[in-house]
Design goal:
The chain is an alpha+beta fold. The protein has helices spanning 16-20, 44-53; strands spanning 2-6, 25-27, 33-35, 38-39, 59-61. The structure holds iron/sulfur cluster.
Length: 63
């Protein structure tokens, strides 16, 4: 399992991460980001894509 954190003070809730890695990130009906803090190793490629496309570098891969 891998762990991520999102810096809410940076996140603009535009949802690019949810497009890149929908198994881990989603926008709730209020338009606010929700995400899984831990995810299976097999999702690492798409999570790394989400990290790359985040315009404010709010996503941190912790391990
Ligand atoms: S791409 Fe970055 S700024 Fe946009 S919703 Fe995801 S974490 Fe927030």
């Amino acid at each position: 399992m891998k762990t991520i954190d999102v810096d809410r003070s940076l996140c603009d809730n535009h949802g690019q991460c949810a497009i890149a890695a929908p198994a881990v990130f989603r926008m709730n009906p209020a338009g606010i980001l929700e995400y899984e803090e831990t995810f299976e190793d097999g999702l690492l490629d798409e999570v790394e894509e989400a990290i790359d496309v985040c315009p404010v570098q709010a996503i941190l891969l912790k391990n």
